[in-house]
Amino acid sequence: MALSNRDRARLSLGIQAAIFAGIVVVLIIIIDWTAVQRSFFNLEPVMAMFPEVITVGLWNTVRYTFFGFLFGLIGGTVLALMRIASFPVYRWFATLYIEFFRGIPAILVFIALGFGASLAFGLNLSTLQTASTALAIVGAAYIAETIRAGLQAVPKGQMEAARALGMPAWRAMLTIQIPQAFRIVLPPLTNEAILLTKDSSLIFVVGMAGSAAELTKMGRDGITMYQAGMTPLVVAGVCYLLITVPLSILARRMEERSPTNSSRRRHKKKATASPVSSGVA
């Protein structure tokens, strides 16, 4: 007897579930859970990390990310406007900047600011200044492309209508195009904030005082200090999740409420209602 498509799908799902359950059972049997607990969840020795891992490590990570994202957003907006400007020199400069800093590892920027700035220019930057500036430089390149896409997604007819009413180009850009573009790109901008949060860990390459340590630095130091295996890094990872998970949820919520998704939902409702209306008629 031939199976229907629905029966085949159910059979396939059942086989996949059985295979997955079998793998889980095998892992439970062969893994040395005592060694796992001792290496990754040995909490008693690392209790000494608290509350400094929150009040120092987490706080510094949030500070570095906040200022890096803030200045990166400002720089990215300027670069996005230069990228779509009619003056070719602006476009060339913005394109060169974006391609360069998107093409090199972010760690090179941290090293250049941490060591090169003092050697080349005699600048003695603090850890906050180094981390925030490096994150802003790298973040601006990525944010610029995100904002540029948002600016180009705004219907051109709105700008043309504003200009036809006598509104100057700069005012139409500030009051019509940029606000709508930011509404469109809020979800991807939130994802950029998550990436900058993780990139803030690169500040460890330039060294820092204990009061300026971020989560990764405290996790690395905890491995040698508390002799608790990888548990200090697990603690640092959980602290990162306290930042990134709420931002991920926020990004999904904003994406669901974005103008594009709202328009799709309206079209879907109309498409669903049309056959019903036709049937009633």
Automatic annotation (TrEMBL):
Family: Belongs to the binding-protein-dependent transport system permease family. HisMQ subfamily.
Protein name: Amino acid ABC transporter permease
Membrane topology of the entry: Multi-pass membrane protein
Residue intervals of the ABC transmembrane type-1 domain: 58-251
Gene Ontology BP annotations: amino acid transport
Chain residue ranges for the region called Disordered: 254-281
Lineage: Bacteria, Bacillati, Actinomycetota, Actinomycetes, Micrococcales
Cell compartment(s), UniProt: Cell membrane
GO cellular component terms listed in the entry, alphabetical order: ATP-binding cassette (ABC) transporter complex
Gene3D superfamilies the record matches: MetI-like
TM regions (residue ranges): 12-36, 64-82, 103-125, 233-251
Highest taxon of the lineage: Bacteria
GO MF annotation list: transmembrane transporter activity
InterPro entries the UniProt entry points to: AA_ABC_transptr_permease_3TM, ArtM/GltK/GlnP/TcyL/YhdX-like, MetI-like, MetI-like_sf
Keyword tags: Amino-acid transport, Cell membrane, Membrane, Transmembrane, Transmembrane helix, Transport
Organism of derivation: Nesterenkonia natronophila
Pfam family, one: BPD_transp_1
